[in-house]
Design a protein that fits this description.
4 helices; 31% helix; Aminopeptidase; 4-stranded antiparallel beta sheet; single chain; 164 residues; 3-stranded antiparallel beta sheet; alpha+beta
Length: 164
């Protein structure tokens, strides 16, 4: 069992996101990016990011959340995945939820929802994300100089196909 396949403490349940999740997903998104990519330039305020989550991500993509249910405690959202057809738009985990198999569960949901294949972009310097996707069968197909994204950060496009 690899270190990212260790079970999380408590019970993980995947469910479709609801509009009421916008605030929690925004906080998770911001915390995850700040922890995983401290070099990344912030281009939007927290309020603008909440607006984007509320009015673009949740109504415009297929979003699933991973909830951790510990004994006697309320469920905590510890990750989410967002799909737009075959494009994996977002897969983020709370910093404390990394390397516990939750990303693998969310990726499995994405594959279930898009069984023909998936594509995504991630920043070239995000070596942890790149290693995760490569471990799960994604291959790099294109490298960009950063002109494609708001952050101006060079990225890489990955693809996964069910047929290999």
């Amino acid at each position: 069992m690899s270190s990212d396949d260790r079970p999380a403490a408590g019970h993980i349940r995947l469910r479709e996101a609801r509009s009421g999740d916008a605030d929690r997903l925004t906080r998770l998104f911001l915390a995850s990016r700040a922890s995983a990519m401290p070099y990344l330039r912030r281009v939007h305020s927290d309020e603008a990011t909440l607006g984007w989550m509320t009015h673009v991500v949740l109504p415009g993509t297929d979003v699933w959340v991973a909830e951790l249910r510990a004994d006697g405690a309320d469920a905590e959202i510890v990750g989410f995945v967002s799909l737009d057809g075959q494009e994996l738009e977002h897969l983020y985990l709370s910093p404390g939820a990394w390397r516990r198999g939750i990303g693998t569960l969310l990726l499995a949901k994405a594959r279930e929802r898009s069984p023909e294949g998936l594509a995504l972009h991630t920043f070239q310097r995000n070596t942890a994300a790149r290693a995760f996707y490569e471990r799960h069968g994604f291959t790099p197909s294109e490298f960009d100089d950063g002109s494609r994204n708001e952050e101006g950060e060079p990225d890489v496009r990955y693809r996964w196909s069910a047929t290999g």
